[in-house]
Every structure is written in C-alpha cells, then in structure tokens.
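Checked the freezer inventory, then went back to the computational side. Two predictions to log before the end of the day. The first one is the construct we discussed on Monday; recording sequence and tokens without edits.
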Amino acid sequence: MPLNGRQLVELDRAIAEYAFPAIYFDFRANTEVRAGDMRAVEAAIRDMLVSGAAERIRDGLANVIYWGYAQIGYRETRVLRFRQNVSADQLCRFQALIKAESSVGLASIAALRLPEFSGISFISKILAFLDPARYCVLDKQLLKLAAVAGNRALHRLSAGTQIPVTASNEKAYDAWRGECAEISVRYFGGRYRVVDVERGFFSMVQAGQLAAAQELYVAA
C-alpha cells in the first residue's frame, strides 16, 4: 500500500526538521565548529576524508566519531581513543580505498579494522559523509522501525549489542539505502538524497513518533 497524504506530510516535515547537532571539531585550532547546517558539516568532513594528507584523514575519521556521539557524554573518550590508536598504515590503506571508489563499502572499510569503527553504525556514517546522495546511516535507533511485522530491508538485519558487518547485513544495508532512494523518487520527485530520507525516519524516532515512523516505513 503506497503512502497516503498524511504520511507524506509527516515524512516531509521530519526531513525538514532534522536537528542533529551540526558540529565538527577543528583539531588544529582545538575548537568545536558550529556549522550553519548539515550540508556544511558534510562538506567539511568529506574534504578531510578524501584529503591526500594522512593527518587530515585522521581528523576526518575522528570527526565522524565526534559528530556521531554529539549527544553522548563519552564522546571525547571515543575520539581520543581513536586518535591515539589509529595507525599510519590504516590511514594509508583508507586513503587508497577511497581513491578506488568502486571498492568502497561496509566490508572493505571494516577490513581496515579502524579503532571505533567495528560495526555498521559508524562505518555507515563514513559512507554517508563520503556520498550522501547514495549512502545513509544505519544505527540501532533505526532498527526500531522493524520492530513491527514487515518484509523490508531492516527486517532482514541481525544485530546484538551492535550491528555487525556480515555479508547478509551488508546486503540488507544496501537494500535499506535503496529503499530510501526509492522513497525520494516515488514520493518526492527525487529531490531528497538518500541520507535526507534516512534522517527523516531518524527524526521521527527521536521525536517520539515511533509508531507513525514504523507504519510509514512498512507501507513505503
């Protein structure tokens, strides 16, 4: 059953009202940067991730963690642990992987064994910053969408304390981002990126509109 008018309005509003902190950290100036919007955060972190300089790549990956834990008290501990433990070889291999582009995915990034990037939640954040038009985040908050019966991508995921990178979970993640792309094209004329649709669902969950988000996801 396709989405009805009320559901389209709800999702459209949720995308517009996405309010996760638009911040990143300038490690050179040792200060937090409050950007005007998420597009500015995306541009800044992507520039770091695709940099030719290992130290800038280190900053970019650290910022994925910094942004991802923006609402959690142990953020600084996780960021510091990453910066202390990531090796020059890992940064070099990440740089080579990004240059290859066609080989970038959950499994290829997981194979680098970057500190703090063991599960799909934060690895998918790297992908979303690299290419928000094609990739989006998949974390445990979004798994709540599949807590009701259905046969969508998120229903096919296996998760414990985190969402592990497995062949079946990577396939489900690719299907999830495909669903977000399809929703944009089918209902919004393609004006939203994959990451925008995902953020709409995330906004609904965060705002306590879980039942509406679940209904919308299963129907879409």
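The second is the one RB wanted added to the comparison set:
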Amino acid sequence: MKKLLLVLCIGVGSMASAQLVNGDFEGAASPLLPGIATDCPGWGPGLYTMETTSPFAGTQSAKMTTILDPATNQLLGWGSDTIPGIMSQTVAGPMPNAASMSLNFAYKYQVTPGDTALIICQVLDTMTANPNDDVVLFQAYAVFAGTANAWATSSVPLQSVGAGTANSVIVLATSSMNAAFGISNGLPGSTLWIDNVSLSGGANVIELAAEVNVFPNPTTDELNFVATEAIAAVQLYAMDGKMVMQGTENKMNISGLPNGIYHYNVTTVTGKVLKGKVSKI
C-alpha cells in the first residue's frame, strides 16, 4: 500500500519519544497569511491557525478551516479557490513497536454538510530516498462529519496493512478530506480542531491476528471470537475510534449497529490484546 500523497511541506522531528513534536500545540505560530501557519514547531507549513479560545488543554489547540479565497489560491497555486485547512508532521527513525501503538488525540469539529474531515497516521517503510516508493505498514485514522462542539478524546489502534521495516511515521489532519487529496473540492466553513496528539502503546498490546478467529465476517448480527487463549474481554470500536460495544464473552450481537467496518480488541486472560477488523452488513 503506497502512502497518501501530500501537497504541502512537512516538518521533521525525532522518534526518541512517542509524543509527537508539539503535539499539545502550545508552541507559537506566526502566520504568513491569515490561516497559513509557517512557524509552528514540529508541524511545519500548513493551512491552519492556533486557537486560544477554549482549547482542550493548555492555552492553544490547532484549528483547520476550509476557506474560499482566490488570493490565497493565486499565491499557493492550489488549483481551486476552495482550500482545505491542513497540517502534517513526519518523524523519521526506527519504530520497532508500531503494532502495539495507537494514535491519540482530542478533537471537536463543525463540518459543512456534504464534507468530511480527517486525521490519519501512517507508519512507513521509506525503502529508498525516492519518496514515491514509500510503503504503508500500519495505519490509523478517524473521519468526521456533522458537528461536535464539545471536546472529546479518541485512541485509535494502528492496524497492519503491509510488511517491511518501520522507519518513518506521518500524521496528517485536514478539514476537507477530498480536497486535501485532490479528489474534489471541499466545502467552505468546514472546521476541525485537534489537540494533544500523540503515539503511544504498551508492551502487552501486540498484533497477533493469527491467534484469534472472528466469524462470520462480514455479518449481519452475531460475531464469534475464538482465540488460542481464554478471552477476558472484547471491545468493538467504530472507525472514529469510539467504543460502541464491549463484553466479557466470546460472542457479540452487533445487529443494532450501523453497517460499516469496525475494529475489535480481544483481551486474553494473560493480558494479550488481539486486534483486527470486522464488517457489519
């Protein structure tokens, strides 16, 4: 799986810590133009501002808003007067425990009807110096539609999507997903706030997909979980990272959930966490 295509420059930091550089957004930012930050430590150039009104924690959060601005389009050569809010960070270095990690963040949003906001983390094998051959090994993301005016937190487990050597991680957030990736224009006014972004994990959280069998998959109602160790707990998460069901048995009835893809965490009696995906149809 190839990495997502970015259209803005990215900042480079160190993998010495699981916390992303300036993940709490308390560093100063000096916009070149309204909505265009150029000096936010760790996150690099992007189309965002630092919000000081009611941040999640501390005094600032990051705010991305899709704008309609011909002058900014002419300056950046974006290709459309509708320009999404966007920010990204790339951190280089070995990441030996990627399978045990989660993307953690606080968020709120006001997304224009018909638009979608996004935060995504990808762990890469950069292969060679050519950025076009980077391969995605692990990925976590959350999408947002509608309005959520109150801050909430999410922790989305990284899911394995490829094989290779993990040596780089990229986190990107945008107020209009399709516009950011050149699929279609976003809708002016869509806004996404994020704060306290980090990558973290524990030694007891491991990727052991071969040791758990989940069936039928896809399903319309009942899920069965069979593991090589006794099961202590089962948790089911929506794609936005919110837990939608939990239990202590090896069966779960999901007939009341909306159709879609869900992540599961199966915790065994020895503390192992087995992760994967299921589809409700």
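For RB: The first strand starts at residue 11 and ends at 14. Residues 167 and 204 are 22 Å apart (CA to CA). Let me know if you want it refolded.
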